[in-house]
Each structure stands twice: as structure tokens, then as C-alpha cells.
Amino acid sequence: MVKPLFFSDPDYPSRLKYCSDSPVLIYFKGNADLNAEKIIAIVGTRRPSEYGRAKTEELISGLKSTGALIVSGLAYGVDYLAHKKAVENGLNTVGVLGHGLDRMYPQLHDKLAKKMLEQGGLLTDFMSGTNPDAVNFPKRNRIVAGLCDALVVVESKRTGGSLITATIANSYNKDVFALPGRAGDVLAEGCNGLIKRNRAALIENAEDLLDAMQWLPEPEN
After folding, report:
1. Model's pTM, two decimal places?
2. Which pLDDT score, from 0 to 100, does residue 221 have?
3. 37 CB-near residues (< 8 Å, 6+ apart)
């Protein structure tokens, strides 16, 4: 069942309200708390390397104990892996879509999307009947950035949707992180560039992220 959430609705994501271009109305299917205590967005290339795949899986596994809500765009590659591993690790996960909730794009992700309805959900600001047109996806990136406390870019080329999302997150004063890659590696150019320009903090694993966000448990005396 699709639930419309107006800006004034108590279930509307509070973090999104602080964004200058937040949508007045969004549509949600699922059972996730969009105002969860900790929300982490994870984005990256649609064609990750073995390194990128491994780091995405490692990152999600390392976040298991936090109970964080994992947000991404349910696209191919890093997005899909982030959602999939979140489900496998018992974390709620929300996919932000660039079309209406009456369909799934890409269709290959329909099976995972149905699992996410039981362990997270699907969110969009596009009404049912809206096609997955290319112009919609950069628009949905602002919701991915606006929903989270922290955005992590796992692997990215010099340009692309992940860097658009990181730029938006910076404009919202969100904490942005990136995993470094080898110099000269095409799939590392985006992350390395963010770090080099001080647009993202360097992390190597989930512990680095939790430490930066001050989410690590207090040491026992």
C-alpha cells in the first residue's frame, strides 16, 4: 500500500525538512522508520570492480551492530549490493526511486524490492504512472542525500550520479565519506577526487565511519 507523506505529516523524514528543495509530498511503501536514529546512504558506480563489491559488503557487515537504516537508489552495482547486504545483515533499507511506485526499474531488482518492503521500503517523490526517465534520477539523488546523516561513496568514476549525490550532500552540510582507490584507476577517480578536494573524508572501513560520526559505543571502565 502506497502511503503519501506531506511535509507536515509526523512520519515525513525530519532530516529532509531541512533541505531547501525538499519535496512537499513523497510516496512510501514499506515498514521502515524514515526518522530512524541513524541513517546512512551508500552510493557508487553501477559497474563496481571486485574491490568495490568487496568493500560494499564489508562496510554493510560492519554496520550490522548499529541498527542503522541503509539508504540508496536501488540502481545496478553498488546501490543494489548495499540494499542486498543490508537485508542479509538484518538492517532495514530504503530504496529511493526515480519513478512511481507502481513499477520497478530495473525490473531485475523486483525480487529484492519485494524483500525490502518487509525490511525497509521504497520511496519516491514521483506519482504512480511516472516513467523511469533519465532526467528523474539526478532529481531523486537529492532525497538520498537529504534522508541521511552520512553519505558514503564506495567507488566512482570522475563523473556520474554518485558525485552528484555527494555534491548535494555537501550543500546540505551532511557528513560525506569516500573509500580511496589506486591512483590511476578509473573507478577510483571520483572518490579520490572528493578526498583530494576536501569534499569527503577518507574512510577505509565501517569502524572509521562510526568513529567519525561518534557512533562507537563508549569504552567500558
Report:
1. 0.96
2. 62
3. 67
